[in-house]
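Changelog-linked ticket: zinc ion example.
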Amino acid sequence: MSRLWACPLVVGVLLSSCADAAPVSDILFVGGEVIDGSGSAAVRQDIAIADQRVTFLGDASASGVRARDTVDVSGLVVTPGFVDMHSHAELDEDYGRGSEAFLYQGITTVLLGLDGGGGNNVADRLGRWASDGIGTNGLLFVGHNAARRAVIGMEDRGPSPEELDGMRAWVRAGMEEGAQGLSSGLFYLPGTYAETEEVIALNRVAAEYAGAIYDTHDRDLGASYPPFGYLASIAEGIRIGEEAGTKVIFSHFNPQGAANYGRAPEGAALIEEARARGVDVRAAQHVYTATQSNLRSYTVPGWAAAGGDTAMIRRFDHPDTVTEIDRQTREMLAIRGGADRLLFADPRPELNGRTLGAVAAEWGVSGPTAARRILRDGNAAVMNLGLYDTENTRYLAQKEWMMTCTDGRNPGPGQNVTHPRVFGAFTKKLKDFVIDDPVVSLPFAVRSMSGLAADFLGWTDRGYIREGYWADITVLDMDTVEDMATYEEPQQFSRGTVHVLVNGTFAVRDRVATGALAGEPLVRGGAVFD
Ligand SMILES: [Zn+2]
């Protein structure tokens, strides 16, 4: 608040009428238990908001703070709006722009462009978000896979010096326009064809920009084929950030596959060793046991997909190559728990909500044969049930460097079954890990969803509840907080988010989304894009 008002302090008798003349805030939350995002315990405080920011914290009535819109939040918990550190919210699409599935989890900012996929047309996208309106704030990464695809296509080879320069220029263009950093998906095509040195070279470009982050989807979280190694993969991610000079975040961090149940402490130890030598390495998690990705990545070895879909289908059709592909697909499915563990989230009605095993049985063919038949018509969105172990997840949730993510993508038209994390990742962490079978305290969980992310992202006026900060605020009823989404019926909004403010505007009020598109496009460092 910059406006001054005449307040004749010398005349004590006029003080009450002076309070009446004080600027009136836009919103006043009264009586809430405020958890500020730092990990500190709740404090009962009133919060005033004006001009999209928190302008007052304390006892409103004692301080004469008033507002046009006073909301009683006694008995409720008031937290910073949550930050989804690894998201696929479809802010560019009509069906995803409003982000209601995310808002109902208390999420007010999503990070996109991950798994190596982010384009370098950053300013274009941010500008479109600003003009069309978005439900949450959004930030973008540029992607290594996208850079590689743009410069050398889907070839299984290293870049020439000229091509490496081309990729560097491609990354630089996105960083210049405000990207948060570089993401990689070394598990995915065509990123998987890259040597570590290539990613370091591109990450060095990102490192020229203060606060840049390297977001890694590892080469092998434990279920890759052929195996690179769960621990080797973590070491590679750390090395890329450490040599290039960026911070590192391991996305949806959790060892995969039954062979790695119980092995979270080994991976965490590598991260903690790096942190001890001064590398800012962190991670983000959701607490489901299923992943979601695509059928090709889960069932076709990288060599068989090299050169793009036409080349891949040619190998499916050739008797020599298809025999070897079939053998390797069987091994890949075994690592993932079998064809019955792959549950389609694809919009195609003959696939959606069914497992690869069920589809194969109906067609009277093997799992690998069914997978190849499906892939002839294009890649398919699919979950892998039971790939994560809850004991691993619970161990990792206690780490002071563990943030939170949905890894969720809004379902498109016809996509009835999708991963429930889109609708419930944050609320499930609260319900399962704080309320039902506590493994962390509420302030610790809230920090993993807000202040910890804000620190990592280099924000100075967002991500905590503090005077002067943007009013991204979530108000929770801890008695009713619950993720409602299931694998069978995923499209159910979370409960218990009573109010959500995005930049000082109600996006959820009295447990109902308002439809407001109050999000802002953000650039690296947290400033609003303009
Ligand atoms: Zn990923």
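Closing comment: Example verified and attached. Residues 304 and 324 are 9 Å apart (CA to CA). The longest helix spans residues 319-335.
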